[in-house]
Structures are given as structure tokens and as C-alpha cells.
Amino acid sequence: MTTPSRPPRPLRVLVAEDHASVRAGLVLILRGAPGIEVAGEAADGEEALARARALRPDVVLMDVRMPRLDGVAATRAIVAEGLADVLVLTTFDLDAYVFGALRAGAAGFLLKTAEAGELVAAVRTVAAGDGVVDTAVTRRLLAEFARGGTGRERPAPEGLARLTPREREVLSCLGEGLGNAEIAERIDVAEGTVKSHVSRLLAKLELRNRLQASLLARDLGL
User: Fold this and answer.
1) Where in the chain is the domain with CATH 1.10.10.10?
2) Angle, in degrees to the nearest 10, between helices 20-31 and 116-127
3) At the topology level of CATH, where does 155-219 sit?
4) Rounded to two decimals, what is the model's pTM?
């Protein structure tokens, strides 16, 4: 007699948003998505940090402009403590909050104008360990980097010298905003090989996700 397999554990999401009506809408969308569970809610950054410590969700859906502790500071603390991956959600497509959130370790950035399906897909992507940035934000980010407006004075991390030539090539591709499939085609290897290179270079550079690697590559002009 075979033992029936257990269904996969749902993705647990903490929703941090100070406007109650917006928060309720986000919760409604997530609860309607199969395989996703709303682990809890928070109305400000301090509460988000406290609830992340208590609940240990897979993903925190984080607004950036909140009272007591803003979303950037809350993101920085949550990522530093390894409590969860953070998907930043805001109405602002490009300002200091974008760069602050990404540098704080956010795994994704999505506008509040995103469709419900885009929100759910972004949560799944972040939970799977990949980064996601709204396409409108990506275009603005690239334009801002081209103008040098993000402040590139960043020392090269010690791990940079330990990268293999292929890992440096992959890091450069990440700096261009390429996905795994595009990188695989560019350097003529299997997509699975690209994923392995990304994992190794993140470990060597002590970075949490590919978005941080992309920012580093651009900061260093790779």
C-alpha cells in the first residue's frame, strides 16, 4: 500500500501596507491565488518587522512609505536577519525609495498599478529565489544608471577577485538586466548552467539576490 504524497506547503506571505483598504485588496488577491497563504498583516514598518520575526513568512509584500518605520528600513532589517524575501510594492515608479529598497536587499519591486495576475506571479517569482522588477521601473532604472544618477562610489567586494571568467561574464549580463534564458543564449550554455553560475557568484559576493548583483555590476561598470 503506497502512502499518499502530501500536497506542497503553500507560500506564506506577510502583507505590510498602512492603508487599510489597499491592504484588504492585496489580501483578497493573494487569498484567491492557489498555493498562497496570507500569514499575516502589518500596518507599518515596525509591525512588519515584528510580525516577520514572529511568523517567518516566505515573502513580505512591503509598502515603502509607512509610518513609524518606512519600508526601506524595515526591508533592510528583515533581509539582514534572514527572515524572508521582500517584494516592494509602491505607487512611485522611480525615486530614492527604489534604489534604497533594492540596496536594502529587496528581491523585487512592483508598482501598485500592477494587475492581480502580475502581483501573484511576482510573489511566486520572489519565493522561487529570482528577482523581479516592474518593466516600467526597469526602463527608468537603466536610464538613471546611464546618467550616473545612482551614486557609483562603491568599493569592489573582496569576492570579486574569486569569480571565474565565466562568472564575471554572467555578472556582466546581470548588469544588463538579462534573464537566465537570455544569458544562456548570449554565452552559449544551458539555462541550468547559468543558474549554477548565478548561485555561485552570489555566494562569493555575499549578495542575497540577482537584483543586488545587477546593481553591483552597474556600480562597478562591469
Assistant:
1) 155-219
2) 70
3) Arc Repressor Mutant, subunit A (1.10.10)
4) 0.74
**Contact 197/170 with Cβ under 8 angstroms?**
yes
130 alpha-carbon distance from chain centroid: 7
Cβ atoms of 84 and 59 closer than 8 Å: yes
Element spanning 61, H or E: strand 59-63
- Which residues make up the CATH 3.40.50.2300 domain(s) of the chain? 11-144
Please report, in tens digits, the pLDDT of each residue of the chain (222 residues total).
555 556 678 999 999 999 999 999 999 999 999 999 999 999 999 999 999 999 999 999 999 888 889 899 999 999 889 899 999 987 765 556 777 777 788 888 888 888 999 999 999 988 887 777 766 565 566 555 555 555 445 567 778 889 999 999 999 988 887 878 889 999 999 888 988 998 899 889 888 777 778 778 877 776
